[in-house]
Structure formats: C-alpha cells, structure tokens
Write a structure and sequence with these properties.
284 residues, seven-stranded antiparallel sheet, globular, mainly beta, Jelly Rolls, binds fe (ii) ion, 4% helix, 1 helix
C-alpha cells in the first residue's frame, strides 16, 4: 500500500435525518438536499437498517426517476426490482443494483421477505447534462461479482472506481465515482488515495468509530472530507471494536442542479417537462 504524505481532514460530521420514503419505509437520509452542491456529483444517500418488518414491508411501489443514477447496495435482506424497461432483479446481501434512470424509468423495489433484517444504502449519482436524457440502463451485480482487495486486517469491496490496483464493478468517465465498502479489524489502518478536487465522504455503519486524522467518526455518522489541494487521500484507523464504512468520492460536475422529488435536471423548465412526460405516460 502506498503511504499518503498528507491525508485529508474531516470538514464536518453529519448525523443524518430520520425520514420515510416509498410506502412508509423508515430510513436515515444521510446526504440531504442542502449538501448536494457541497458533495456534487452525489445527490442523496439513504441508509436503511432495521429488523422490524413494519419498518420496511411496504417497500417502494412504482415510482419514476429521470436524470441521474441510483445505486443500491444491500447488506442484509432481499428486494425485488421491476422496471418499465422490462428489467427484473433480486437484490441480495452483498450485491449492488446500478440503475441509470436517464430519460426515465418507473420502477418498484419490494421486500422479498416477511421478516428478518433489511439493511443497506441507496446513493444517487448525478449524470452530466449531456447524459441526462440517455437510454435507461440497469445492472445487477451479485455479491461474488463485486471485486475485493484484502490487506492486513482490511477487506475492501470495490463497487465503483478502483482501490489498490483492483478495478471496481462500475466505472463512470464523467464523474469517476469511487464507492468502497471498507471492513477494518480492530485498530486496522487503511489509506486510500483521492484526487484533491474530488468531493469525498464516508459513513460508518459498524463498530464504535473510525479515526480520520484527529477526528473520531462514530457509527451512523457521515464525515465530509475537506478538499485541501495539498492533500492526497484519506487515512482510516478503526477503533478497538473494528469498523465497517462506506467511502464515496467523485469529480464534481459543476452544473446547475434542479430537483423535484425523483427528477433531477439542470433547469426548472426541464423539471416541468419531466412532470409532464410522467403524467402523459412517456416515462414508461
Ligand atoms: Fe427508486
């Protein structure tokens, strides 16, 4: 592992907001709308995790999207996906669903279980203006298809981008997204190079805490990493209980962001068009 010379510091810790979406699914919105500009090209991060079926059983019935990509990463539980392009898939533990909404899809994500735990993340990745109306795409990446790197007390699942020479399951040219699931044994250390201009954040979902420089990032907290031009990456050290976290980074698009619910475009006019197209049945 190449040693970093000057790791990034934590700019801000974020707790996330308890909310519900779909048909009453309880979740924590970690990346909220007010952080979209700061964390460009990422628009949203939801963390869901419960072993109470009442919190998830309603699922996410048919709803539309346009203008960006949704990335769902399952840790526990199973969700059945169906969309208007005719795609169907089962999201299972350790697997990823990468859906490019492009000009529009209508889809549902419904629990395929009556009880047990349901846990995972949904990330929204913006598309550059030129790709917002692209043909919709859909990929299921099962757990064994997610490339991994193993080090001393460290396991890194490379969902997007690359880490320690391991190329991840998904690459995107415009935003070069990095999406890592990092598992650290007690007091294990991991360093990940990051381009200074890329916006980056991490979210701790297991263990007691991760040290980023002098800052302790506790479980269920997001840390936004400072964009210091002199810095070359992030250094993570797990606490005594070990830790698991997701680390996400990408090149900002620097384009206007206009959002109306599940539509994310560049202008208000494009949002009006999206709603009209949806109401006229042109997204299906
Ligand atoms: Fe959705």
């Amino acid at each position: 592992m190449t040693a970093l010379k000057n790791p990034r510091k934590v700019e801000r810790l974020v707790q996330g907001q308890a909310t519900s979406d779909g048909a009453g699914v309880k979740l924590t919105r970690v990346l909220t709308q007010d952080l979209q500009r700061r964390l460009d090209p990422f628009l949203m991060l939801d963390a869901f995790g419960t072993d109470n079926p009442g919190d998830y059983i309603g699922g996410f019935p048919d709803h539309p999207h346009r203008g960006f990509e949704t990335v769902t990463y399952m840790l526990q539980g199973r969700l059945r996906h169906r969309d208007s392009a005719g795609n169907e898939g089962l999201l299972a533990p350790g697997g990823v669903q990468w859906m490019t909404a492009g000009r529009g899809v209508i889809h549902s994500e419904m629990p395929e279980q009556q009880d047990g735990a349901m846990e995972g993340f949904q990330l929204w990745l913006n598309l550059p203006a030129r790709d917002k109306m692209c043909t919709p795409g859909y990929r299921d990446i099962s757990a064994p298809e997610v490339p991994e790197w193993q080090g001393d007390g460290v396991r890194v699942r490379v969902i997007a981008g690359s880490a320690q020479g391991v190329t991840g399951a998904v690459q995107r040219e415009a935003t070069a997204p990095l999406y890592l699931d990092v598992h650290l044994a007690p007091e294990a250390r991991y360093e990940q190079p990051l381009p200074p201009g890329h916006n980056a954040f991490l979210y701790v979902y297991r263990g007691d805490m991760v040290l980023v420089g002098a800052t302790a990032v506790r479980r269920q907290r997001m840390a936004i990493l400072a964009n210091d031009p002199a810095c070359d990456g992030v250094a993570l050290v797990a606490g005594a209980a070990g830790a698991r976290l997701i680390l996400i980074a990408g090149r900002p698009l620097g384009e206007p962001i206009a959002q109306h619910g599940p539509f994310v475009m560049n202008t208000r006019e494009e949002l009006v068009q999206a709603v009209e197209d949806f109401n006229a049945g042109r997204l299906a």
